[in-house]
Protein: Helicase HerA central domain-containing protein
Organism: Acidianus hospitalis
Amino acid sequence: MLAEGKTIGIVLQKSEANSIQGLITPEYEVSPGQLFLIKDNNKLSLARLENYEYINEFYDEKIPIVKNILSENTSFDLLNMNTVIKAEMSIIKRYGHNSSPMPGSLIKALPEEKDENFLSEFYGVKNVSDYVKYGRLAGSDIPLLLDLNSVTMHVGIFGETGSGKSYDMRYLIYLLSNLKIMGKNTALPMIIIDANGDYADFATINMDLVSGGRKWIKKYVIREPKSDTETRLTIDLSLFTPKDLADFIISLKYGGNEINSLQSNLLDYVISQHDQKEYNNLLGKEEGISLIQQEISSNQNIKELGFSSSTARAVISALEIFKDRIIKRYKLVSNSSSINEQILDVIWKEKGLAIIDFSADGSPGVDIPTKQLIVSYISRLLLNYLTKAKYSGSQRLIAFVIEEAQNYIPSNDYPISANITKESLVTLATQGRKFGVSLFLVSQRPAFVDKYVLSMLNTFFFHRIYHEDLKYVMSASGGLPESLAKGLTSLDTGYVIVSGLMSALKVPALVRIPWDPRLGSYAGSVERIDRVLIEDSSK
Ligand SMILES: Nc1ncnc2c1ncn2[C@@H]1O[C@H](COP(=O)(O)OP(=O)(O)OP(=O)(O)O)[C@@H](O)[C@H]1O
């Protein structure tokens, strides 16, 4: 029999199949979305608090008795004495029976107990050790169990700035780095697009936090590495089509938001005249760029194809910008790129963690189109690698965490063009489950993430969100119960609503994420201003 906590209230009424009303003692602190056990003789059910109000027996809207007694000092004690919480709840799980609790049933707090047997019964799962224990169900000490088997159905982590997303992602990385499955230490292989350097310490001072199941951890930067914990990121352009590269080079000239299609078509034509294997020599080296520029200025065909000399001049100047930025400044292209299929193989075999540091420190001055080129490159690489592995008979799995997802798969409402990433990420999202890619999309603004990709996420971690995002969150998650939805725009930092396939609870749940100071010290975390002001600045 499942353990129960303290009795804190009583059921007064049952209405529709799953809804009940009851009274709860005012000494017990409650919040919407909190879970309780309901005991009807020997039948236990799990209920979620949907709505509640504090009521007092002196209060009656029709009889203004309260008004008359408020002048008395003792009135407050009196009011307190007779206050109860009127609670509306819905049954979300029944333990071994099919009935709804009758009036008179007891409302019980969740027990303190959280051993394996209890969790197994509570969630109705066989092997608790197959699950990841995440946070604590609100108002209790019971962890939420997450099922790793649904991780390839993709995950979304959303919340406004300061709502606790990065800390949550750090906590998830920590959990997924220290897995113990059938007694064996392991980890989920991961590549992280780290927008603000929030995970960079996992490759340096806090490596021990994520090395329980990993044997390989690396941080990539787009500048000269400052220590041997850093590797310069280089990519291989032969993974792209001439059209992708042409669009990218032309868009770079216009700050990424516009593509002049005439110029792009011309460059596409010129690049297509070359073998794909040559792209790194051609577009990755200053001499190669000069060669292409010469081809454009001296090629008779170009005029015959209808391109004007002003289009040709514009393409030549776009190539100049590409050369200055991508080749000379970022030194981004290499035939032996620092992330390639061999590295993915190492990441898989060693259960590795690759952090692509896109912060101002790791990638100073790198623009969004270039970041998109890199994300697109990694997506293609991942799909190629995992597809080959699958067809040669071996199932692999790599998670791809993308922060600021709206920059790579924007919705039509977001004023940024991302052709180069959108297509490859949509492919990853649709094919991912088959080949073993697990996308973790992190964003402050789910409204600005492509609706189609949003619809392919199947597990959500919702932190406090902006009001404007509520409708996107509701439609992406397939709806949240009203009790949780109405609190979503005012959730406290440290609380998250977890919904979807990975949750062993099967219904959305409010979860508290425990604070660990070591996990909490990272670049993006916000120090308290009052403490910072009194620090000794001469140190
Ligand atoms: N579980 C938690 N418990 C207590 N405090 C927390 C918790 N999570 C986050 N915080 C506090 O809130 C601050 C902001 O959290 P976090 O950096 O995760 O926000 P964010 O949603 O990632 O913001 P941004 O989108 O601006 O990066 C942290 O510095 C920390 O002080």
Notes: DSSP finds 17 helices and 21 strands in the chain. The two ends are 59 Å apart (CA to CA). The chain has a mean pLDDT of 89.
